[in-house]
Amino acid sequence: MILIRILLNSYTSTCIWAILTLAGLLLPLQSMAEQASGGVPYIVEIRGVIARQAEIDKLLRKVSQTVGKKDVPPHSLALLKRRAESDLPEMQKVLRSFGFFRGTIHFTVVPAESAKPTTTGFGADPASSPEGDPSPAPYSIKPVTIRFKVNSGPRFTFSKTSIGLVPDSPAGVLSPPTPAEVGLTADVPYAARLVVKAGESILTRYKENGYPFPEITDRKVIADFATNRVDVSFQVAPGTYARFGTTLVTGLDHLEARYVYELIPWKEGEPYDICLIKEARQILFNTNLFGVVEFKNPGQVNTGNRLPMTVELKERAPRTVQLGLEYTTDYGPGFDGSWTHRNFFGMAEKLSVSTILNKEIRTVAFRFDKPMFLNRDNTFTSQIAFNDETTDAYDAASGDISVILRQQFTNTFHAGGGLGFHLAQVKENANDERNTYKLLYMPLTADWDTRRNILNPVQGMHLSLGMAPYQDITQRDIRFFRYTLGGSTYYNFNSGDWAVVAFRGSFGQILGITHDNMPADLRFFPGGGGSVRGYGYQMAGPLQGNTPLGGRSSLTGSLELRFKVTESIGVVPFADGGTAFLNTVPDFSQQEMLYGAGLGFRYYTTIGPIRLDVAVPLNKREGVDSDYQIYVSIGQSF
Predict the structure, then answer these.
(1) How far apart are the C-alpha atoms of 311 and 259, rounded to whole Å?
(2) pLDDT more than 70, % of the chain
(3) Does residue 226 sit in the same domain as residue 257?
(4) Is residue 325 in a domain?
(5) SS3 label, residue 83
(6) 428 with 479, same domain?
(7) Quick one: pLDDT at residue 330?
(8) How far apart are CA 150 and CA 441, in angstroms?
(9) How far apart are CA 577 and CA 507, in angstroms?
(10) Among 445, 373, 439, 370, which residue's Cα sits nearest to residue 401?
(11) I want to staple 99 with a disulfide (CB 3.0 to 4.6 A). Which of 156, 196, 273, 527 is the partner?
């Protein structure tokens, strides 16, 4: 602040007036210079007793420019007041949308160094906030407070709801739903979203029952301030009843159109149903063959009450290459990759070649999938794999060939069965014995999966069952039945992927054979980044010295708490437990459960999260287990 001292002696009154005028000009210039350095900092408070406070407070802050632009402060208190005043109508709408039609909102500007606030707002005393006062308040480096005071008043409730047809509706037209069917029940607290949802439900009823172009021609919401009740009325025009007409598929370059026609869930002449269009869109996207899927119609029903449909598609590139790197302290760096062709012969046949390379495992696999084999919901799969393993438990060179016919029963459940042959030369390190196995087996699978994103699941559930009877064709005593049941589930607290609880568990058994006769490469070997972290690969089970023996049964489980710190960074505390048992029935008196715990870090990318986990064994065995294990790979651990 500039202080000007005026000495009254022999100056004339004209001079005094000039000096005072100059001072009046300098003071605003000084204030403007100070404000130019960054504006008037402020904080925002929203106070008041409101039912369902958290939800309403969130929306009030969302519509408020004062809140949204807090990091861009205005250059004077007058502009700050103007910003807060512009919030009042929108905030009033928020109150009305929750049925607080009598609600009022005022705001108070509390200066940083003054206890005397000024008030303005709906219902405020006009004398306390003179209009047109542009004078900026003295600038302070301390923030002022914009305090919104909400007086919600009583919450109105639904009273009477009517849903009717337009007066000229033809006889026999589908009747509208009842108010209860669309969620508008008397005495329920009013909410605008319930009215909007009810309108959508009315239209959906008609679109699912043969009426492609219904309209709500009139909607009234009348609040009665004498009774604090709300009457709602809808008037709906169903439009013309229609059946599906001819379907035209466009935009295909390499894929045969008959493949798409087989996937369309409706037939010409069936009543129009928008649910079938939504189902078709999901089916086509799930094939991973299309980047664009659009359904169009001419906007009117033809003379035969048929509605022609056009399916506009844009094919994705048919070939993809995936490369991945991983690192673990138990077997060092590793590489995995795959090449996939998703439309090999023009009917969405998929051919893939994949490989895994690290110090202990070398694998190459070829897989061919033929969809719509025998019927639309069947897929024929054949696979050949070559494996070379040099693990602590065994050395094995093997080849495996299998064919499976899988039936898709629902969008989330499929099951199948087939035949396979496993040829392996195995050296068991615990006793230095070598054996050759020629195993004929019958794989049986079932899978239920409601996850949406396999690399980063945040909700849903996955259950899988894989089992097979085995018979060695040269050694009659080598006969057994092996199965594994596994599952995982995810809960995200309605927070997207910012906070997710994930749980995984698995149990497996081998029946009909002794431990010593059981092929070592088909026993259960928990331990490592895919099961019980903190322990080396195959090491979370019975040992002979430092050599894993594997088991005829196995039990494992994992719990993760996945938290995002930013959009791209996350932390994951986790705990794993499990072991293998020499016997078919787990015997905890002979083999204790082993537990590991640790902390993971995630870097989220468009192709999935990059994972870094550091785990320690909680049941460390001296001379066997390391102090910690590190795992680096792409994708969540499960």
Answers:
(1) 13
(2) 89
(3) no
(4) no
(5) helix
(6) yes
(7) 82
(8) 72
(9) 12
(10) 439
(11) 156
Q: What is the CATH number of the domain that holds 538?
A: 2.40.160.50
Same domain, 253 and 196: no
Q: Residue 217 has which token pair? A: 């021609």
Average pLDDT rounded to a whole number, residues 364-371: 97
Per DSSP, what are the bridge partners of residue 222? Answer: 231
Q: What DSSP designation does 189 have?
A: B
Is the same domain home to 217 and 251?
no
User: What tens digit of pLDDT does each residue of 182-195 get?
Assistant: 999 999 999 999 99
Entry field: residues in the chain: 638
Looking at the structure, do residues 206 and 131 belong to the same domain, yes or no? no
The answer to whether the CB of 214 falls within 8 A of the CB of 203 is yes
Which conformational region is residue 159 in: left (phi greater than 0), alpha (psi within -120 to 50 degrees), or beta? alpha
Structure tokens at 192: 């605008």
Query: Taking each helix axis from N to C terminus, what angle separates 192-207 and 77-97, rounded to the nearest 10 degrees?
Result: 50
Among 57, 38, 37, 55, CA closest to 46: 57
Q: Is residue 188 part of a domain?
A: yes
Residue 64: Cβ-neighbour burial (10 angstroms; 0-12, 13-18, 19+)? buried
For position 230, which CATH number holds? 3.10.20.310
Which residues of 17-114 form beta strands (DSSP E)?
42-47, 104-110
198 and 122 share a domain?
Answer: no
Is 90 exceeded by the pLDDT of residue 311? yes
Q: Output the pLDDT for position 46.
A: 92
Count of beta carbons in the 10 Å neighbourhood of residue 9: 4
Task: Report the alpha-carbon distance of residue 153 to residue 177 in Å, rounded.
Answer: 33
Q: Per residue in 519-533, pLDDT tens?
A: 999 999 999 988 999
Strands, E assignment, 48-117: 104-110
Count of beta carbons in the 10 Å neighbourhood of residue 244? 23
503 has a pLDDT exceeding 60: yes
Instruction: Establish if 404 belongs to a structural domain.
Output: no
Q: How far is CA 549 from CA 178, 233, 589, in A?
A: 67, 74, 17
pLDDT above 60 for 1 = no
In DSSP notation, 557-614 reads: EEEEEEEESSSSEEEEEEEEEEEEESSSS--TTTS--EEEEEEEEEEEETTEEEEEEE
Strands of the 215-224 sheet, one edge to the other: 157-165, 229-237, 215-224
Range of the domain at 217: 157-237
Residues sharing a CB contact under 8 Å with residue 350, sequence separation 6 or more, in sequence order: 340, 341, 342, 343, 344, 367, 368, 369, 371
Instruction: Label residue 30 by pLDDT band (50, 70, 90).
Output: very low
Q: At what angle do helices 77-97 and 53-63 cross, to 10 degrees?
A: 130
Instruction: Quote the pLDDT of residue 318.
Output: 93
Task: Say yes or no: 470 and 596 in one domain.
Answer: yes
Predicted confidence (pLDDT) per residue in 105-145, tens digit? 999 999 876 444 545 554 443 333 434 444 444 444 689 99
What is residue 38's predicted lDDT score, i.e. its pLDDT? 65
Amino acid 497: pLDDT: 86
DSSP per-residue codes, 122-153: TT--GGGS-TT--PPPPP-SSPEEEEEEEE--
- Among candidates 365, 369, 370, 340, which has minimal Cα distance to 355? 365
Confidence of residue 10 (pLDDT cuts 50, 70, 90): very low
Q: Which of 214, 237, 260 is the last residue of a domain?
A: 237
Domains in the chain, number: 4
Give the end of a domain, one of 189, 221, 237.
Answer: 237
Asked whether residue 541 is assigned to any structural domain, the reply reads yes
- Indicate if 189 and 205 belong to the same structural domain: yes
